[in-house]
Predict the 3D structure of the following.
Amino acid sequence: MKSKYILGIESTAHTFGIGIVTDKGKVLANIRDTLKVETGGFLPRDAAEHHYNIANEMLQNALKTANIDISHIGLVSFSQGPGIGQCLHAGASFAKYISLTLKKPLIGVNHCLAHIEIGKLTTKLKDPLSIFVSGANTQIIAYKNGYYRVYGETQDMGLGNALDQFGRELGIPFPAGPVLDKLYFEGNKYIELPYTVKGMDLSFAGILTSAKMQIGKHRKEDLIYSFLHTSYAMLLEVVERALYYSKKKEVMVVGGVAASKSLRTMLESLGKQRKVKLGFVPLEYAGDNGAMIAWQGYLQYTKGHERQTLKQTKTNPNQRLDSIKITYLK
Ligand code: AMP
Ligand code: MG
């Protein structure tokens, strides 16, 4: 790759993102747009349609922000999976079109790996135990012998989705996470809710159902406090054991829920007790974004010398990060 500019395209769910980064890890542009929904969830085809419609306009904006011409791009990177099939396709076909017309290499990357690597780049942690908490995902991950290993994960829904669904029931519009996070600090009574840790894995379906059924029976703030406190305690129990198994000395939080102040408060006390260094991905890179995809593409292509044929760039809605051989870490 002669050019130092990498283009990253993110489209795993309802957010479409375009990022431009340099080979030194400097982010020149990172713009995104999320499909807006009035009530309930979103339909995959509506999100894909949103991505197709907005893609070119966003690319032009990103190039303008980065102050470069499209011909300066040296590598095109996109989210290959995991994600929603139709959404992934929208980003992948746009990336393929750009790569073919510019005659520049194309690389499909794992979305979850990208969350972790942008976290490491921005928090400057070297080899952390990662808590990856987003809408769809909840995993505790650490690197070992050529692979990122999943030490524990949710068996049903991601924590962010559980928060959003609970919020929806309380009449809080999507995404409810940030609002619940504020109201947490107004709660002062703990209401007992199901605490489900199975081995190293988690489940949020039970606590969600129970919390929903108790709406109206308690002060809203107390119920929110109890819901967040219980689910974060479950998460931290697994983190604590994963720290023991993995022997890592750093803990990093990535994904949209990394913005949570209440999670941070609880984690800080664990950090003190266990004497581990903590890092939280900055807000701009916490949710889905194109810059992290660009950076992941750079790592795999330039540091890891990976090359993909067009066939190998096929999208994969169920791609797991622990199935991917890591080529770019020593
Ligand atoms: P992502 O899937 O990575 O884009 O993250 C989006 C998820 O993060 C949504 O479920 C949001 O509700 C959640 N989220 C965002 N900010 C916060 C916050 N301050 N506290 C808790 N959850 C949050
Ligand atoms: Mg994500």
